[in-house]
Amino acid sequence: MAQDIFPDIQRFLAECTVGDLDDEVTPVADLYGMYMIWSEQQGMEPQGMQVFSAAVQGEGIEAERRRSEQVYTGLLPTGAIPIQYILETDKAPGPNNTLDTFPG
Fold it and tell me: DSSP letters of 12-45?
């Protein structure tokens, strides 16, 4: 299970997201960008996008394609990290925005 292999990703999800919200959608690239910011603040080297995605999936959170991007449904970023992400990228996280700053 992802929690045994990637405790940093599990901790990020626990501290920075709220799950089981049917109407919420978070782009995969945006969540990964927030994870990168969080990792930096924790003094840790972030895992790569593929490892991150596999760990998130291991936590039972599936990505799906909506229009032209991959999103996590039912997941909402919360706390200070999404605010910092918005300030650092000059865009609000949301469906159908592309993320060129953090390539995956």
Answer: HHHHHEE---TT-EEEHHHHHHHHHHHHHHHT-P
